[in-house]
Amino acid sequence: MTQAAGYKGFSVERDVITIIAFNQPRVNVLSTPVLAALCDELKVIADDKAVRALVITGQGSTFAAGADIKEMSGFGQAEAAGYARLFHRCMNGVEAFPRPVIASVNGFALGGGCELVLACDMAVASDVAVFAQPELDLGIIPGAGGTQRLAARVGAMRAKELILTGRRVYAGEAAAIGLVNKVVSKGRLDAEVMELAQTIADRPVHCVEAVKSLVDHGSLEREIEVFTRMFSYDEQKVLMKEFLKKK
Fold it and tell me: Is residue 225 annotated as part of the catalytic site, yes or no?
């Protein structure tokens, strides 16, 4: 395991299961420097074939509190456009990461923090996690994919309600509406997430990458093509032979 240094706003533990942990004193805001560094780091990790899963989490009581409001308060339209494009590039990088990305939601996931959860493939929340898209309180709207990814995750009708009211969604409701996969006690969060990540990491990597790609951007015809390609791997022959030996 290696610890990356020099990245403002988050730490990186590089291993088969790589962990990015936001660690800012100001409740893990996603400012321009943090987003730029995160974009760069995601590219580096994605190119590392030894990484089988990525976990994103926060330290303290906050997963990520979203945009840096102090920074945004001075924006004109040009600055707002640049910030939104950077945020989108970063969230798209999470979504397009070739192996599964798991959000380990330890606390508040507000605004852009909630949008980051939505960009991940899976999410496990502690029982104290809180989610919200409160942007309308500030005279703006979600600007990091929230209008699209929240609707895809929980349905258009519920997404409109959550964004237009800005109300907080607590852990139990988040699981009930499909915003997260499951809720665990705060003390069990790290262990549960690592168990999930390890289960995935132990699967054939070409199968894992294929499933993620197909679910995100596939078709029935492409599924046939990819299924067929699986039979070109030695691992398929070995695993099927082992399965038959057990019968």
Answer: no
Q: How far apart are CA 208 and CA 224, in angstroms?
A: 16
Catalytic status, residue 115: yes
How far apart are the C-alpha atoms of 149 and 160, rounded to whole Å? Answer: 12
The pLDDT tens digits for 203-236 are: 999 999 999 999 999 899 999 999 999 999 999 9
**One-letter amino acid for residue 103 of the chain:** A
What's the token pair of residue 21? 């942990």
Tokens for 76?
């004109």
Domain count, the chain: 2
| Three-state SS annotation for 57-115 | EECCCEEECEECHHHHCCCCHHHHHHHHHHHHHHHHHHHCCCCCEEEEECCEEECHHHH
Query: Which listed residue (115, 195, 221, 235) is catalytic?
Result: 115
Same domain, 216 and 240: yes
Q: Looking at 165, 181, 200, which one is the last position of a domain?
A: 200
* Active-site residue, from 79, 135, 192, 223: 135
Taking the model in full, what pTM does it have? 0.93
